[in-house]
Amino acid sequence: MPQIAPSLHRDPAPSADKRLSNTEIAHQLTTLAQLLASAGENPFKIKAYRRAATTVQSLPESVHELVQSDADLTAFAGIGKGIAGAIREIVQSGNLRMLDRLKANVSPELAALSEFPRLDPKRVQQIYRKLGISSVSALREKLDAGEIGRLLGPRLEHHVRQALITSHELLLHDVDDIAAAAEDFLRQRGGAKRVEAAGDFRRRVEVIRELNFVIQTDDFAPVVDELQRYGGHSELVRADAERATVRLPIGILLTVELATTARWGLALLLATGAEAHFGALEAAGHDLAKLARSRQRFPTEESVYAALGLPVIPPELREGLDEVARAEADDLPRLVALTDLRGDLHMHTTASDGAHSIEQMAAAAKERGYRYIGIADHSQSLKIAGGLSEEALWGQIRRIDKINEKLDGIRVLKSAEVDIRIDGTLDYPDELLRELDYTVCSIHSRFGLSREQQTERILRAMDNEHFTILGHATGRLLLRRPGYQIDLERIIAQAQARRCTFEINASPDRLDLSAAHARLAREAGLKIAINTDAHSTRELDFMRCGVDVARRAGLTKKDVLNCLTLPQVVKALT
DNA sequence: GCCGTTTTCGGCCCGACTGTTTTCAGTCG
Question: Averaged in consecutive runs of 10 residues, what is the pLDDT profile of chain A (574 residues)?
């Protein structure tokens, strides 16, 4: 079929032809970062370009338009004068001279690698040499054939796989800001009259692939049009008269569903999920599908659940576990809330790898309404994190006593994040551990032990009478690293026998215990701590993420150790 | 290259251990 000549009716302005999306601009910045990395440039400079690229990808506004309207790009985090200039050059000329120069100076295979921002050029060149290949397509073939794993080991294989597959998942904590921006966008640019988040995000699932909103508007088509302009351009994945999905520049999907006032509650419930929850409702004889077919009004979720003869089930519990049975028995838990927390039992200070002093952490905690905090700096064997020597911990104990004399309204508890050594012994002698109010004991080494060995290691550690809380029980890092293998049921049984407990580590990439694990611990009757593991005053705000997990696990404030008052917690810890 | 409750320079972890690709790169917080 012959090419059709461009229509003469169209706007002929050449500069308007190619409007770069934020994705394309960010891509140039990450490509540049890759080439700088290959050229052995200053790592901080490389990081700066990567960070700026992420910022560009996260913006709902079109950076192209921002440049054209002469907006100040340096107002955005991680974009200073230099990178703002680079972005302007990309938008105005379509390319970046520095990038072209660097490309011209490297071999074609290295230049090709720069298209894959997460591929480490050094490691790939190593693979190229050993396998006698020189292209990304060959690399992909070798990966698929299992040769990289077989010849070069699982770690390199993992690296290549991660780098070649574009990530379409984000941590819940990172999506919080994106969801807020998307909601604004839908109201202001889309003209939506009412917007409410649903889906996994509303159920507070720890990793998000798709962001869902239910919206109300008189005209859905302009919303769909506008969504495709999100971040300059967002690819339309699917759309019909009442539902549209785009892929945002940052990688995750955004789905918007139209609802009326009369059916708002039903639409919200259906968009919130999870499928397993609907399955559990159906299995218990609650015919949600019939309600959906009816002409009845369901303006709120309350009205939907009421029609099913049930109280409202909190979104965090809608996973098809025991929530429907508990709702039927009028036995839904009153889930723990952020305001129920009275303290935080795991944080670091400048004594090890934290950014703030004991006094600063205490002041910041007091501002958040806490009555106590526990300082749990790293122990001596964790050199990289500046773990405290025995002498240093003795000194910190004395210092905390002095600080407590001066503090008003908040008490600092003495603790340490004590390494569980390979043989299951703790990283400080008993006579020192005895001086602490409690301990957080964690594994920070030898993740590769077998399930049996790792479990034994923790069980042995719990034999120590000074063991109080198991820190980040599995060591997982979401989207980066699976945890080490443990037999949690045996460890829970030992915790019951030895009067130990667990924490939900609220660090957004840990969330460890997971909701499923926290549920098991709760069912065993253990009181679980929700701890931020904060390394700065700002990270005390991670508590919200831990509370999300606790709620998904069905925890009430009675199940949470640091919902106790100061006298109660002191008693519970002795 | 960015940034500032250590603000216009000098920071932005980094240091010991692990384990096999057996000699240094990856990994822990």
Answer: 37 58 94 85 89 95 96 95 96 93 85 81 78 84 82 76 80 96 97 98 97 98 97 97 96 97 98 98 97 96 98 98 98 98 96 93 95 97 94 96 96 98 96 98 95 97 98 94 94 98 97 98 98 95 97 98 98 94
Concatenated DSSP letters of A317-354? G-SSSSHHHHHHTT----B--GGG--EEEEE--TTTT-
With H, G, I as helix, E, B as strand and everything else as coil, classify residue A146. Answer: coil
d(CA A445, CA A429): 19
Residue A558, phi then psi, degrees to nearest 5: -65, -20
Q: How far is the CA of A353 from the C1' of B13 (A)?
A: 8
pLDDT for A8: 35
Whole-number pLDDT of residue A338:
98
For residues A249 and A21, the answer to whether their CB atoms sit within 8 Å is yes
- Which amino acid belongs to residue A126? Q
Which DSSP category does A505 fall into? E
Strands (E), A164-290: 170-171, 194-198, 207-208, 210-216, 235-239, 243-247, 253-258
* Contacts of A130 by beta carbon, 8 Å cutoff, 6+ apart: A151, A152
Quickly give A565 CA vs B1 C1' distance in Å.
48
The enclosing H or E element of A413 equals strand A411-419
Task: List, in order, residues 6 or more apart from A284 with CB less than 8 Å away.
Answer: A324, A325, A328
Rg (C-alpha) for chain A, rounded Å, is: 27
Instruction: Find the helix or strand (DSSP H, E) in which A419 lies.
Output: strand A411-419
pLDDT for A17: 57
Q: Are strands A343-347 and A253-258 parallel, antiparallel or unpaired?
A: unpaired
Question: How many other β-carbons are positioned within 10 Å of the β-carbon of residue A167?
Answer: 13
The helix (H) or strand (E) run that includes residue A271 is helix A264-272
pTM as predicted? 0.93
The nucleotide closest to A484 (CA, C1' atoms):
B28
Q: Which residues have Cβ atoms closer than 7 angstroms to strand B? A: A 42, 44-45, 47-49, 52, 74, 77-84, 120, 122-123, 126, 152-153, 155-156, 353, 355, 378, 382-386, 417, 422, 444-448, 472, 475, 477, 481
Best CA proximity match to A560, nearest among A313, A332, A343, A326:
A343
| Closest by CA position to A458, among listed A504, A496, A495 | A495
Whole-number Å distance, CA A247 to C1' B1? 30
Residues A221 and A240: their CA atoms lie apart, in Å, by 9
Q: How many CA atoms lie within 13 A of A143 on its CB side?
A: 20
